[in-house]
Amino acid sequence: MAVDPGRADLQRLISEDPGGPVVMLNLLRFAPDGAQTYQEYARAAAPFLKKYGAELIYSGQGSTALVAEDGQAWDAVLLVRYPSRDTFLQMVRDPGYQEVTALRTSALSEAVLQATVPGFAG
After folding, report:
1. Domain presence at residue 30
2. Which of 13, 24, 41, 51 is the most exposed place for a label (fewest CB within 10 A)?
């Protein structure tokens, strides 16, 4: 299952950039004992979020899945706002940040990381 974005994913993120801030939706499924490891990752990643002007908008534990197929429930949800897609890419490429990503990778069995853009008015 996918956990980390690859080079082609990051290139697509930049090539489809409409400009402006981006809020990244994170849907997380933890590996066994992964929740604690993810908390370690979050603490280690916090200085990089600050350095690049990003902010955690929301974090929550998964709860009752009302509309979902079997296996589609998530353990945690995060929304992280970055000043731009380029800023997100700069953070991901930061050598210091890359040192802490192993914690995230080992903590997760599956993830969705999706850029969102403002404007959907249902």
Report:
1. yes
2. 51
With cut-offs at 50, 70 and 90, classify the pLDDT of residue 1: low
Q: Domain containing 25 — which CATH number? A: 3.30.70.100
Domain holding 32, by residue range, is: 7-62+74-116
Residue 20 lies in a domain: yes
Percent of the chain exceeding pLDDT 90 equals 79
CA distance 88 to 91: 5
Look at residues 101, 112, 98, 90 and name the one whose alpha carbon lies nearest to residue 28. 112
For 49-94, the DSSP string reads HHHTT-EEEEEEE----SS--TT---SEEEEEEES-HHHHHHHHH-
| Angle, CA of 45, 54 and 26, to the nearest 5° | 70
Pair 58, 116: CB distance under 8 Å: no
- Asked whether residue 4 carries a pLDDT value surpassing 80, the answer given is yes
